[in-house]
């Protein structure tokens, strides 16, 4: 009899973890900037809200891309991501993946000194102009 409460807690924690594990970070790309950019972003938000409730949409979106591209990042189920990707106004939906950095010494990699100054170049030292 003492085993039953432990089993219920274990099963409920497993199911709860499984539900949270099903959501992944997706980037919804709507396109580059144009005169219709803001309108397209608003329409895609409306489409996302139609796929689920407005509250879920507000909770799911964690970043909006508005400076260089139009789109947003959200925690979505695979089914919702597929539904959004089927919208004619959405260019693509892809899983947001982490990338490993290739260097931890960026300043040295770029040829900069520790203080951030660009090293002096010897280019043009022997250059002379002659008037003809």
Automatic annotation (TrEMBL):
InterPro entries: Peptidase_S8/S53_dom_sf (IPR036852), S8pro/Inhibitor_I9 (IPR010259), S8pro/Inhibitor_I9_sf (IPR037045), SBT (IPR045051). Pfam families: Inhibitor_I9 (PF05922). Residues 25-102 form the Inhibitor I9 domain. Residues 1-21 form the signal peptide. Keywords: Hydrolase, Protease, Serine protease, Signal. It comes from the Eukaryota. GO terms for molecular function: serine-type endopeptidase activity. Gene3D superfamilies: Peptidase S8 propeptide/proteinase inhibitor I9. One of its GO terms (biological process) is proteolysis. Belongs to the peptidase S8 family. This is Inhibitor I9 domain-containing protein. It comes from Vanilla planifolia (Vanilla).
